[in-house]
Amino acid sequence: MNGDSINKSKEEILKTPIDKLGVDILNSDLEAYVKKLYEELDQQGITFHPLTYLSDGWGCPDGAPVIGIPFYLVNEDLREIEKEKIGTVEGTEEIQKIFRHEAGHAFNYAYSLHKLPRWQEIFGVYDKPYEDNFAPIPGSGKFVRHLEGWYAQKHPDEDFAETFALVITPGFDWKNAYKGTKAYKKLAYVSELIKQYKDRPVKAFSGDLDIPIESISLTVEEWYKKRISSLKPKAKILILFYQEYPKKMPTHDEVVDQIKKTLLELGYGVVLLPINQSIERIINGVKEEKPDLIFNLCETFRNNDKFDFNVTALLEMMRVPFTGSRSGSLFLSNDKYISKKIFDFHRIPYPDFFFVPMGGEVVIPKNLPFPLFVKPVHEDASIGVDENSKVQDEESLKKKVKEIHEVIKDDALVEEYIEGREFFVSIVGNEVLKPFEIVELDFSRLPQGKPKIYTYKAKIETESEEYKLIDIKVPQDLTPELKGKIQEIAIKVYEVLGASDYARMDIRMNAEGKLYVLEANLNPYLAQNSETAIAAEASGLSYEHLIGGLVEEALSRASSKI
Questions:
Q1: Does position 30 have pLDDT exceeding 50, yes or no?
Q2: Cross-strand partners of 422
Q3: Burial class (CB in 10 A: 0-12, 13-18, 19+), 136
Q4: Are 209 and 55 in contact (CB under 8 A)?
Q5: d(C-alpha 384, C-alpha 119), whole Å
Q6: What is the distance between the alpha carbons of residues 405 and 182, in angstroms, rounded to a whole number?
Q7: Cα separation values, 408 from 218, 340, 380, 389, 412, Å
Q8: Is 30 exposed, middle or buried (0-12, 13-18, 19+ CB in 10 A)?
Q9: What is the rounded CA–CA span in Å between residue 333 and residue 391?
């Protein structure tokens, strides 16, 4: 039998059991691809030619030096059905690339290369758990890229197969293409392995094949129904985040891994795009990956918190949807001086204040008695806020303002210090706004005389006294009226700033019960232990539901604009 033609109509083919199709690689459209692969191996001096067979998909049986090929590629009739049912089918170039990739697996298995200590040192442990879902990092210099999909980052075995495929690709100058990258060492090692093993004989394969078509009794139509039902029509999400590059190795916040894991568990395709200094990296990464949505975790750029809204502005110009607020709203919320002016216009209560621009002199208004509170105008995450931010006299005030000007490199905001309870109100939604349960900062365990403020140490430095002693709790003593009033103010702030998808408002209440909006955070921290996640859980939403809900809100908002 051959694969030239089945001599049946499309309807008849669909009703035919796959094991009765009567197709084979010999004399089919696939034979030319197999011959070309063998020629490419010959050019490298490799005498090993992996056997091929028709299967339900691409692959090598576990540890077996043979290549399974999807039966639907055997002739034009079946390829047309594949394209009709799935929407796409492998083209000529892609087929040959996959052959090279699978040959890499087969070459590895033929000589048990993955057992070599040097192989494990270069590529990793072969027995590492295999991830069907993974989040690649586009542009990583540690891995080669042969196939679409960043397979090399998936597993050590895939890393080897991709590297092998590039080495045997005719006309590809891998030495120049990957010069100066960490992947170069892998390519050089594979090239050396080929030289060592190219002439060695391979024992004839006598094991079991992995799902040959002779074992598939389903009709073609039944097989496609089963296959389609298993496909997850989930969106592809690119997580955009800032990554620091210290001397030894790049680092990123734990929230990236938490959200990645959550999105993968929800069935989304996930790609990671760390950025640091390069606008081009953002542009090229987005263009290359073509995500359905960007999950924006970028709170800084070029190590400057003032630039975060510029990143969203770039995404807007690229017309790619992303989670969270737009650039204009982020700009307004990030500038605490402008925010207060907006609050004033809309009669939203806030602490009285005055503004000290970079290089400006401190002139204290008569209506602002000490103690006062000093903070940077543009920074977030309480950067520049410490126990000295609460000042009791003019000397301390000027000293703190000078520190913000010279160390933080920012304008200073000086406002009346509100002694009292501090609440966080997280809100999600666009058309319909949903406030979560209110959470409160509990300062009761702080030593006597310690200022009751949420400093940078309290938020970030896990070993600090502040971090260990300040708790986040759900208050049980708020009356329905007070709770409603706090949430009402938070919603109004959300609306006047034009927030999207989610935000968190920080509100204080003094001893007389008067409420003051301290800040609006339109890109709040989303880790599992964050104020927003705690508030969501208190409202009956798991972390998975929180992150999934934010994605749905963003996708819905994006689709409504199409």
A1: yes
A2: 441, 508
A3: buried
A4: yes
A5: 48
A6: 41
A7: 68, 21, 12, 13, 10
A8: buried
A9: 25
Question: For 194-200, what is the mean pLDDT?
Answer: 96
Residue type, 513: G
Give tens-digit pLDDT for 62-83: 889 999 999 999 999 999 999 9
Strand (E) positions, 276-395? Answer: 293-296, 353-356, 372-376, 390-391
CB 367 within 8 A of CB 356: no
Residue position matching structure tokens 């049946």: 8
Q: pLDDT tens across 216-269, in order? A: 999 999 999 999 877 765 799 999 998 876 655 566 789 999 999 999 988 899
**Domain 236-327 belongs in CATH node 3.30.420:** no
pLDDT of 1 reads 42
Tokens of 423: 């609440």
- 3-state class of 476 per DSSP? coil
Domain ranges of the chain: 10-229, 236-327
> Could you give the CA distance from residue 95 to residue 63 in angstroms, rounded to a whole number?
22
DSSP for residue 301: B
Cα separation, 312 vs 320, whole angstroms: 10
Angle of helix 156-168 relative to helix 92-110, nearest 10 degrees, comes to 120
Where does residue 492 rank: exposed (0-12), middle (13-18), buried (19+ CB within 10 A)? middle
Distance CA 489, CA 559 (A): 29
pTM of the model: 0.73
Burial letters for 373-400: b for 16+ Cβ neighbours within 10 Å, e otherwise? bbbbbbbbebbbbbeebbbeeeebbbeb
Question: Among residues of the chain, what percentage have pLDDT more than 90?
Answer: 74
Q: Is the pLDDT of residue 18 over 80?
A: yes
